[in-house]
Amino acid sequence: MGLGMAGNLARLLKSQQAPASLARKELFVYNRTASKAQPLTSHPDLSIQLAASPAEVAASCSIMCLMLADDVACDSMLQQLQQCDLQGKVIVNHSTNTPEFAMAAVAQLRGKGCEYIAAPVWGRPDAAAAARLIVVPAGPAEAVARVQPFLAAHGRLLPTQDAAHKANAMKLIGNFTLFGFVETMCEALTLADKNSIPREDMLAFVDAFFPAPSIQGYARRIASESLDAGAGFTVDLALKDVRYMRQLAEMSRCPLRVADLVFNSLLAASANGYGLKDVGAMFLTSQQAAGILPPGKHLDEEQEERS
Fold it and tell me: Can you tell me the distance from the alpha carbon of 307 to that of 296, in angstroms, rounded to the nearest whole number?
């Protein structure tokens, strides 16, 4: 969890909107690389304490929030937390997981007297900092109600699902939709380049037909070739998500032809050294396939030659 989401929680705990039982309580954070938590704990306007271990978090907090890379990382954290007394506590997982992970987590934590809420989010770090994330919560109604103020602190809540694994399925389906747009935009801008249509004119088309900040943001990053991910969504993380959605598709006996196409575009981008670039680096594969960018040549090299 980055500064945006952690800051939202810290500000809520200091505000009058905090649940009475948690008002004026402190926020504890843990990261296995302590230096990564430093921007949180050193922030002058936030009261955030660094925990030395997951056990310290479990001992100090009644509500614990996770934001990790994948099923493996989340499972490792849950195994550590299950060594602690979790009776009466709630674990909220904002990560992008498989539905199978959520079902296993619910079963494991139920035996510890702990409720599990899946609440994956959509949005980049700037959206998190502005409390404009989109959250899909899922789990037992009473537990979701208990953590609702903390979920709402991050932005807009979609309808609550009645089982944790449904939120994870919905997140994967949502990402499938977004990645499909990114693939389409990469190909559309490449076709526009081949026909001498200015990219700004294509962006005007996007603004007219898809007036949504996330869609417009992706289109502009691709058109400007602004592919540094920063703290945003990388090609390699997107590959993980597409693997998860293809697993879901196979289990559901539901072909996802677009996901297969996106997977290959992401894989090609990663193979060309763009694994840590923004997911919009799929533009690279479109440009190469169209002969605009020679195979094996990176976009930043092409930009240097143009300048």
Answer: 20
